[in-house]
Amino acid sequence: MxxxxxxxxPGTHPDLPPPPSMVGVYGWLRANLFSSPxxxxxxxxxxxxIYLAFPPLIQWVFINADWQGDTREACRREGACWVFVxxxxxxxxxxxYPSTEIxxxxxxxxxLALGMIPMFIPRVRGKAWIAAFLLFGYPVVAYYLFxxxxxxxxxxxxxxxxxxxxxxxxxxxxxVGSLPIGIVLALGRRSRLPIIQSVxxxxxxxxxxxxxxxxxxxxxxxxxxxxPEGLTIDRLARALVGVMLFSAAxxxxxxxxxxxxxxxGQYEAAQALGLNxxxxxxxxxLPQALKLVIPGIVNTFIGLFKDTTLVLIIGLMDFLGTIxxxxxxxxxxxxxxxxxxxxxxxxxxxxxGMSRYSQHLExxxxxxx
Length: 369
Description:
It is built from 15 helices and no strands. With 369 residues, it is an all-alpha fold. It has two domains: 17-63, no CATH class; 85-97 and 156-365, MetI-like fold.
C-alpha cells in the first residue's frame, strides 16, 4: 500500500475541526434561524414584531414606571404604577392572614426549603428519611403552623387565608394527593377484576366529564345539603378534596399511558422471577412507566397550579382573586393591569420552575443512551 493510500486510513490523522460556518454564534444562527428561506422570512417577521412591541413595553415597565411612594398620588407618570403592587404586596402574598402571625407561614416555608435542599444534592445521605418527613410529617407541622390550635397559638380560620399562600396550599395538596390516587386508579382500570375495573373507569370518566368549576360549586354549595344536621366541613377542605380528586382522574390517564407503553416482556420477566403483583408493579413496572410519562405528569401539575384560580367562585381569595379585589378598591381604580402583569410573572416563575425540573428529571433518569 503506497503512502498516499495510507493517509486516508481511519485513525491515521486526527479529525479536522468543523467549518467555521457551523460553530459559534454564526453557526447557531444559521442552523436555527436562517436554515431555509421560510425560516429566514419567519425570523425577519419575528424581529420586526419585537422591534415594534419591545421598546414601548420596556418604557412602560421600567423607564416611565413609578416605583416610589405609598399612595395613589405617587403614580404621576405614563408608565406602570408599581406602587400599587408595593402597597398591596402583603395582601397578595398572605391574604387577610393576621400580620402578627405571618411568621408562622414564613416558618413553614423555611422548613420546606430546608427539607427540599438536600433532595437536590446528589451525595446527601438519608434522603429516604427526608422524603418520608416531607410527605407525612411536614403536612402535620404545616397544619398546626397555619391553623394554630396547638402550643398556645392563635387559631387563624381558613376564611382569612388568601393570596399566594392559599394558592400554594391548594396546589400542593392537589399535586401531592392526586399522584398516588391517580396511580391507584390507573392500576385499577387495567385490573382483570371486573368490579375494580368498573369502579375505576366510572370514577375517571365521571370526574373527567365535568369541569372543575362545577366540582368546586358542588363541593361548596350542594355537598353541605347532604350532610347530617349539625355536621359541617370547612369550605377550604371541601375545595381541596374536589381539586385533588379532579386532578387524580387526569393523572390516572397519564399513568395508564405509561403502563401501556411498557413491553409485555417486562411483565413476563417479573412473573418468571416469582414476583407477586405488588412487587412486580412497585419494583419493575411503575418505575419505568412513571419515567416515561414525566412530561405528562408535570403538565398535569402545571395545569392544576393554574386552575387554582377557579376557587374564587366559591369565595376563596387566592392569589389572582386578591389582586382582582385590590384592583376594585376605590382608591386604586385603574391599576388592574399592573396587578395582572405581576400575577402573570409569578405564575410563570412557578410553572417554568416545574418545567425545568421535569427536564432535569428526564435527563437524570434517561437510560436509553
